[in-house]
Design goal:
The N and C termini lie far apart (83 Å). This protein has 3 helices and 5 strands. It has a domain of 60 residues. A 3-stranded antiparallel beta sheet has the order 1-4-5, covered by helices on one side. Strands 2-3 form a two-stranded antiparallel ribbon.
Length: 117
């Protein structure tokens, strides 16, 4: 497990505080130890990179989501909730019945011109 600073892309280094290359990054034995390191160092702008032998399984975790990232989600949630309520209200309304004198197609063999005359 590695720690990568989100804004710069630098890694927490094994021999220096920050390094540019992933190969020089400090390896943490567990995500819990990586979290402890972040907390002790006051680092919040970070992703924990979980690397596996199969790159398709590699995962990025953002344990310290900033409030700036959460604000758009809250703004979206409020309109989405209102839309869901409106949709429920519309579904509860009775459906309009078509008027009884509604146009109907002419019976087979008669043209529509005869009926409208």
């Amino acid at each position: 497990m590695l720690l990568e600073q989100i804004e710069t892309g630098f890694f927490v280094g094994a021999t220096a505080p920050l390094v540019l290359e992933e190969a020089d990054a400090r390896l943490f034995p567990s995500s819990l130890e990586a979290l402890h390191y972040c907390t002790a160092s006051g680092i919040r702008d970070v992703e924990i990179l979980l690397r596996f032998s199969d790159p398709l399984l590699d995962t990025r975790l953002r344990p310290f989501q900033s409030s700036d990232a959460e604000r758009p989600l809250r703004r979206f949630a409020s309109p989405a909730e209102r839309l869901a309520c409106l949709q429920d209200e519309i579904a509860k309304r009775p459906r309009l019945q078509p008027p009884s004198a509604q146009w109907r197609p002419p019976p087979p063999g008669e043209s529509s011109e005869k009926l409208s005359a």
